[in-house]
Amino acid sequence: MGTVGELLRQWRQRRRLSQLDLAIAADVSARHVSLVETGRSRPSAEMVLRLAEQLDVPLRDRNQLLLAAGFAPRYAERPLGADALATARDAVGRVLRAHEPYPALVFDRRWNILLTNRAVDRFFAGVAPDLLRPPVNLVRLGLDPRGLAPLVVNLADVRSVFRARVRRQLATVPDAELTALYEELLAHGPPGANHDGASVEAESDVVIPMIIRFDGRELRLFSTITTFGTPMDITLDEVAVESYYPADDETAAYFTDPVTAGSRQE
Prior knowledge:
This is Helix-turn-helix domain-containing protein. 47% of the residues lie in helices and 12% in strands. By secondary structure, it is an alpha+beta fold.
């Protein structure tokens, strides 16, 4: 780990801001930013957090900045099942249940699935058991031939969406394990595949298309991502809820029809 000044400079450059840009946003002088980055001024904990806030540094990395500056970490990291997160966990559970009969799940910064609603379960029926051993990784589950990949009609599109999202994530917050996942599953597609994905990537911030062949039907789904707005815990800062919606009337009917809905509960 470098000095706090070196780390702040890395985050500023990652955000493509000048020292003046950061100074204006944080309401300090550009000279002060320069002194902090070069180590000629030791920032207070409050100044570290002020700069980190303007740089949109994740809570996990804000703790690293504080440690580098000689201060204790400010943000706890507790499991989602911890008593201290009971209120947040209950809120997430309500979101998942409220989204039924449509699928929804919760995953962490490395795309490991933490929670699902009942509508997700049936799609796991044909998945290889080893892929369902915790931690279950959403990217691996979606792209592995022993996972959900055989069900996905537009697998190249889905891979392109995953690739774009993980690449943007790594550009924002580097992570060794996520980089390894990207290299394993996303950097190189199957032989003969089209890796351009430009049209899909351009749309991925608006709608995430996925066509699944299941129960003799083609289900067309798009998804949205929900995150906590003002988390003070690292776990909550890093979790997201992905909710899937029907993209056409036929798909909506499949999930709401009493016959198919009843078979999903068995």
